[in-house]
Amino acid sequence: MTLGELAKYVRSKNAGPFWMTIDIFCDTEEDYRMIKESPALSNEAVGALYRTDPKKIKRFEVDNLNVIKISMPRPYPQGARNERDMHSGQQYVQLLNIEL
């Protein structure tokens, strides 16, 4: 099963000009646990996917809301010459096909 199939909603957005955040919302506690415990979403795996240092990734698990928030440095600052997603609104798409 992929993250896109299991999660209720996945979104990404700015967390300032130098950081972005990805939010994963789950319908049930069971779905949340499966996603939360998946090695496919470890800091190392996410770091490899987004080409960032896993030590710089911040992960927040909000158990009472069944939500996981993953924050990391943006590859380029917002508005930089090579930056392609001004609001980081498309960055979540890379996670949708990850097998859990």
Topology:
Blueprint: H1 3-6, E1 9-14, E2 19-25, H2 29-37, H3 43-50, E3 58-62, E4 67-73, H4 93-96
Antiparallel strand pairs: 1-2, 2-4, 3-4
How would you portray this structure in words?
The longest helix has 9 residues, at 29-37. The chain is α+β, with helices and mostly antiparallel strands and 100 residues long. The protein has one domain (3-96). A four-stranded antiparallel β-sheet has the order 1-2-4-3, with no helix packed on it. The model has no long low-confidence stretch (mean pLDDT 95). Helices cover 25% and strands 25% of the residues.
In the sheet with the most strands, the strands line up as: 1-2-4-3
- What is the H-and-E element order? HEEHHEEH
Helix coverage percent: 25-40%
Distance linking N and C termini: 6 Å
The DSSP helix count reads 4
The total count of strands amounts to 4
CA-based gyration radius: 13 Å
For the largest beta-sheet, the strand count, sense and barrel status come to:
4 strands, antiparallel
Please give the domain count. Answer: 1
Q: Shape, please?
A: globular
